[in-house]
Amino acid sequence: MIEASHLSKSFRLRAGKKDSGSAIRNLLRPRSMIKEAVRDVSFTIGQGEFTGFIGPNGAGKSTTIKMLSGILHPTSGEVRLSGINPHRRRREAARSLGVLFGQRTQLWWDLPLKDSFEVLGAMYSMEETRRIRRVQELDDLLRLGEFMDTPVRKLSLGQRMRGDLAAALLHEPSILILDEPTIGLDASAKRDIRSLLRSVNEELGTTILLTTHDMDDIEQLCSRVLVITEGTLHYDGSLDGLRSRIGMPAQIEATFRTLEQANAAWAHLQGAGADSFGGKQLQERTIIVECSLEQRSFMNILRELETFGELEDARMREAAFEEAVHRLYPDARPAKA
Amino acid sequence: MIRDLKGMASMYKLLIRFSFRSSMQYRFNFWLGSTIAALIAFVEFALLAVILSRFGTIQGWSVQESAYLYSILILSKAIYRTFASDVHHLEKYLLSGDLDGLLLRPLPVLLVLMTQNVSVRFGETLLGLGMLAYSLSSLAADDQIQLWIAIPLSVLICLNGGLLLFGIGLATAATGFWLTRIDMLQNLTEDATHTAIRYPLSIYPGWLKGILTSILPVAFVNYMPALYIVRGEAGPWMLALSAAASLVVLGAGAFLWKWGISRYQSTGS
Asked: How many domains in chain A?
């Protein structure tokens, strides 16, 4: 079980504004600036739940994850992992926690995978027989055998991720926190990792919290979604609930044969009866509209446009889920890295 | 408590073993690094020896006596850097965010850090031992010291020196939690002070002596104990005082470290 109550984290940044004053002045009198990375975030994830944690870059995902896993101390608020506060009792909390950072390996880079397991087993004070049995189990699940004796630096990204996942699971943690576990993987490796995670959750009953930018991860794995933007938790609920809030956003591009037709249709859209469209754009003979497919079907919209003349071309693009989340929370501008 | 310490000691041994196994993947680099380090230390002492042979003494300290100072320093430093290797390189972990991974383990971060990228300083150790042997034997030949007392005490002095240098290194590294970039500070508190105590402290002006015996008390690594062992200018209490200096520095380092780690800010992602 993961409990976060009123978590906040602010950082002091030393960066002075670039345009105000010279670099030398900034060096001499650094202006510090408090940045609130996470503001008053609370949630509880029950044992065995599989939860997705999404939000744009710089929204506070990583900061929250690092607070949950005991790496960063919150400015205020409290974390409990199975009842243990990882900031007061870090080493104890670490025993029931497995963490995977997709962008960074925790394996011994120059040693074969099996050596990493040996060290990790000792770190978590596992008996040798128990460790060997556990590695066997993980091998069955993750198919590690083929590269167990290869130095980690020579593994492919997909293999390395499987190895890292096994390393995070070795000490049988009841909580697994995954930061972008599918980043950089090709489609088949992603499929692999997902099915593995599903069986870890179902067969071992492990509580899993996962961050990702790939909505397929969320759709295929998570029963619950948390959305964070600008450091604040905006949504906590089912994926269907989030989807119905967003609607089914789509962008339709219709190109008329002549400029006159396009202009006439454009005039119509500017007038009454066109509230159902979000953004509108006219580019020569092409009209681009945004709408929710829940309210009007694609064909319905095409028929309306065709009253102004025959269409040369029409196409529809469903908005990416993440982009849609953005639009749902308009104060959430993507932060610069 | 005792069981805890025993557990930590065996964990430390295991981590060192694997760290070794890692660096042995690059044998050539490993041995070349060791050789070069020894060579540098040797050249530095040779320079000192040349100066000494010209002038005979430095402020009344003979060649043998200066060799004693130098060898204790080299051995202390070798002990510190062998047993606490990457503490000196904390900055690297702070800049890359690699400290995150260490914080996830159910072990003290310092213990894990101390066992990363371990290198045994064979070259420096050999050079230091050779120099110490030369110094002690020629001093004994002049009846200035008695070997059966000086040898065991010198071993203790080296261990104490290792602890003291480790304490200063730890305190300096811990400031990285606030400052992030600390290489210049390390230049000052570690490199510069180590260079300073190659020579007898008496050659320095008062304010520098003050610093080297109080804020950065590196004088207690070699000069102060040598006053008793080699020069007979101080009593055995000087050894107790040196041990006390190590404890104070180590305590301050541990305090700063604990405080600093709770302020760790990690990196962007």
From this structure: 2
Write down the H helix ranges in B56-175.
63-83, 90-96, 99-103, 109-114, 122-141, 147-174
Tell whether A129 and A6 lie within a shared domain: yes
Please indicate, yes or no, whether residues A158 and A51 belong to a single structural domain of this protein.
Answer: yes
- What is the enclosing helix (H) or strand (E) of A131? helix A128-142
Edge-first strand listing for the sheet containing A2-13: A33-45, A2-13, A76-81
- Rg from Cα positions in chain B: 19
Q: What is the pLDDT of residue B158?
A: 97
A178 and A305 part of one domain: no
Among the residue ranges A7-16, A60-69, B256-265, the one predicted with the least confidence is A7-16
Structure-block tokens of residue A51: 């939860």
Q: What percent of chain B has pLDDT over 90?
A: 59
3-state secondary structure of B90: helix
Give the CA angle between residues A320, A321, A324 to the nearest 5°: 90
pLDDT of B266 > 80? The answer is: no
Same domain? A212 vs A119 = yes
pLDDT value of position A31: 67
One domain for residues A192 and A163: yes
Interface A-B, measured as beta-carbon pairs within 8 A, has a size of: 69
Helix (H, G, I), strand (E, B) or coil at A120: helix
Among A300, A264, A315, A307, smallest CA distance to A285 is for A264
| CB-CB under 8 Å, A72 with B15 | no
Last residue of a domain, one of A229, A244, A259: A244
Determine the structural domain holding residue A319 and report its residue range: 247-328
Is residue A319 included in any domain, yes or no? yes
Alpha carbon B208 to chain centroid, angstroms: 20
Q: How distant, in Å, are the alpha carbons of B176, B211, B228 from that of B233?
A: 39, 21, 6
Shared domain for A25 and A138, answered yes or no, is yes
Strand, coil or helix: what is A119? helix
Q: Mean pLDDT check: name the lowest of A8-17, B119-128, B165-174, B205-214.
A: A8-17
Nearest beta carbon to residue A337 from set B11, B97, B268: B268
**Does residue A334 fall inside a structural domain?**
no
Query: Are both A304 and A181 inside the same structural domain?
Result: no
* Predicted confidence (pLDDT) per residue in A324-336, tens digit: 776 666 554 444 3
User: For residue B141, is pLDDT > 90?
Assistant: yes
CA distance linking residue A208 with residue B110, whole number of Å = 29
Mean pLDDT confidence for B66-86? 92
Find out whether A171 and A126 touch, Cβ atoms under 8 Å.
Answer: yes
Q: Measured between beta carbons, which residues in chain B are less than 8 angstroms from residue A74?
A: none
The CA distance from A291 to A90, in Å, is 49
What tokens does B208 get?
Answer: 């520098």
Query: Best mutation site among A11, A35, A71 for testing chain B: the one with the most B CBs within 10 Å?
Result: A71
Residues A265, A271, A275, A277: is their CA dihedral positive or negative?
positive
Residue A337 belongs to a domain: no
The answer to whether B110 and B250 are in contact (CB under 8 A) is: no
Do residue B268 and residue A70 have CB atoms under 8 angstroms apart? no
Please report, for chain B, the start and end positions of each structural domain, with discontinuous segments joined by +: 2-261
Do A53 and A164 have their domain in common? yes
Q: Encoding tokens for residue A72?
A: 């960063």
Quick one: average pLDDT of A232-244?
86
Residue A29 pLDDT > 70, yes or no?
no
